[in-house]
Design goal:
Layout lengths: L16 H28 L5 H23 L6 H6 L1 E5 L7 H23 L8 H6 L1 E5 L5 H34 L1
Antiparallel strand pairs: 1-2
Length: 180
């Protein structure tokens, strides 16, 4: 298993957490938009309310996982990873196949538990829980300018603050406001 700290390591550098978060958020915005647009259209066309929304959520969630699995395999990249110059790689530097990418994508469910601790684990050594599960890591496939790196860091911090604020208002404040 290669180690970036090893002087003999010649692979591409591991992706920075901020770049990974920005790429993921770009992809999530696409799918969230698709969900909201199609769910709104279904409700407007006489959908069944909450049941219909759950169905759309499951459908778009499955599409999101399939999208990540397909584009992590065989050298393909999601739109977010392409924009940030990132790529999923096996630990030995080879590209993952579809089976490995499906396992990695399914691992998002594990990484999403406990306040997204599995995603945050990438702050410790660059690999999230789903990467450990599938034997992958995300690497910088293309060199980027310092300005692009700074922009990615700003976007990642803004996204992290937005996610934390949404959680706080939904979980901490929302229930107390609902009680009156």
């Amino acid at each position: 298993m290669p180690d970036e700290a090893d002087p003999a390591f010649e692979g591409p550098p591991r992706a920075r957490f901020s770049d990974r978060l920005t790429a993921f958020m770009l992809d999530a915005v696409l799918f969230s938009s698709g969900y909201f647009l199609t769910a709104s259209a279904a409700l407007a066309a006489g959908g069944e309310g909450t049941g219909s929304l759950r169905l759309w959520l499951v459908l778009w969630g499955a599409l999101f996982f399939a999208y990540h699995a397909w584009y992590a395999a065989d050298g393909r990249r999601t739109l977010g990873k392409r924009a940030l110059g990132l790529q999923v790689s096996l630990l030995d530097g080879r590209l993952p196949d579809l089976k490995t990418s499906l396992l990695r994508s399914a691992g998002y469910l594990l990484s999403s538990t406990f306040l997204c601790a599995g995603f945050l684990w990438a702050l410790r050594g660059g690999r999230a829980w789903h990467d450990h599960l599938a034997g992958t890591w995300v690497v910088e496939a293309e060199a980027r300018s310092p300005m692009t790196r700074k922009a990615s860091t700003v976007v990642a911090w803004a996204a992290a603050l937005l996610i934390a604020a949404a959680w706080f208002f939904t979980v901490a404040i929302g229930p107390s406001m609902a009680r009156g």
